[in-house]
Amino acid sequence: MKRRDWIKINGLGLASCFLPANKAFSYLSNNQVNTPNFSSSEFGKEFLWGAACAAYQVEGAWKLDGKGPSVWDTFTHKKGKIHNNENGNSAADFYHRYKEDIALLKQMNFGVFRFSLSWSRIFPTGTGNINKKGVEFYHKVIDECLINGIEPWITLYHWDLPQSLEDQGGWANRKILNWFQEYVSFCTKEFGSKVKNWMVMNEPAAFVGLGYMLGYHAPGKKGPYKFLKATHHACLAMADGGRIIRENVSEANVGSTFSCSHIAPYRDDSVSSYKDAGAVRRMDALLNRLYIEPSLGLGYPIDGLPALKRIKRYFKPGDEERLKFKFDFIGLQNYFRVVAKNAIIPPFLWAKQISAEKRGVPMNEMKFEVYPEGMYKVIKQFSKYNIDNIIITENGACFKDVVQNGRIHDKERISFFNSYLKNVLKAKKEGAPVTGYFVWSLTDNFEWSEGYEPRFGLIHVDFNTQKRIMKDSGLWFKEFLSEK
Ligand code: NOJ
């Protein structure tokens, strides 16, 4: 099942937006495509500008220098799981090309680099023995950032669980809490004198939902019970991880990142809109509230999605408290809007998404709706939690890139950033505590089940030669950020 179908199952959508599908960027004139009518300085001197990537999506070197296999190695090596049966064995070869990539980041005038650590490069079997060469590799990446005046921001967990831990049940086994603590303790003690900015997890809704409920991502498990268990363990581990970072790293800036979408009802006629409002409420609980509210002390959003009440079965004494952790910042990652319709299947949600394709609205190559106002709306929605600091830790789009005389004129991507950034600025000007923005992604990379086809990078990668070319969108950022 494709990720977009998963989103379909979880259902969302907006009825009012019936633009022709190929008019994605008609809301900007040719001129505006390249020239934003705002400047980066309007975001403030302290605003962080960065680009992000994740270990499995870029590193390659999947079994080099002592690295152990992760669930993504295993999953991608099975036939039929990934588009074109591709895998991240070589990915963008960041393992050997990190210096070049950090230099490119600097050339584009970004000051911050977000990358993740591969757990099984450090602990090949998840716990116990440490792989010195893996640790050395991350020291080299961190040092390269620091030498270049780039601030390293580390994500501890971006979905690549060591396979030997999955063999023991992975996130559905409560022992994951001890395994994760060992991993986080080691990394923060090892790198904490050089790195102050840490994110415990990346998008738990995605790796738990896609990996333990729908089987579309590694480790390919299915069913509501594994999903609920894995959800509870991920939420506990996220709070535990936050506490460990704070203990081990002086002056740490601790966060975690969450996928989020503005969710709208499909129908607005008087009979059906009531039903679709219910679908919106359930989707919102699953996609936006489930993983963040426990850390804020609000518990699981059972009021929004009653089927979640079964999660209580997996509680042990003390868990209510253990779920709470006050992050210094939360990372929001917004890619699309969801339009929801009431439905009898699937029963857990009683709702489905009406796809962007069906609604005929602007979308990118992965059929994610391009809906810039959604960025503004999710920032406003999450601001209501009274969070001190929100950082957009990912935002970006994949479009078909064509290399023409050594250049990539990716007008649509430029237009995308232009319009999404405008909405970030609007929310900020209205008082939302947004303090940074990270582009997804620095380079083209391995897009999980979709393989190498969707290209999100500011830097084009030829996956045969690993040659890099800065796209026009990279040049656009270079100019945009030169005004800071
Ligand atoms: C969010 C994930 O964190 C990232 O790994 C992925 O590539 C992007 N979404 C785009 O789908």
Describe this structure in words.
- With 484 residues, the chain is α/β, with parallel strands linked by helices.
- It has one domain: TIM Barrel, CATH 3.20.20.80.
- It is 37% helix and 14% strand.
- It has 17 helices and 15 strands.
- The protein has helices at 3-10, 30-34, 55-58, 71-76, 94-107, 119-122, 132-147, 163-166, 176-191, 204-213, 224-248, 273-289, 319-322, 356-359, 373-383, 411-429, 472-482; strands spanning 48-52, 112-116, 151-157, 197-202, 253-260, 263-265, 329-334, 338-342, 351-353, 390-394, 403-404, 407-408, 434-440, 459-461, 468-470.
- The strands form four sheets. The chain has an eight-stranded parallel β-barrel, surrounded by five helices. A three-stranded mixed beta sheet has the order 6-8-9. It has a two-stranded antiparallel sheet with strand order 11-12.
- It starts with a helix and ends with a helix.
- It binds 1-deoxynojirimycin.
- 1-deoxynojirimycin (NOJ) is lined by residues 54, 57, 202-203, 333, 335, 394, 440, 447, 456.
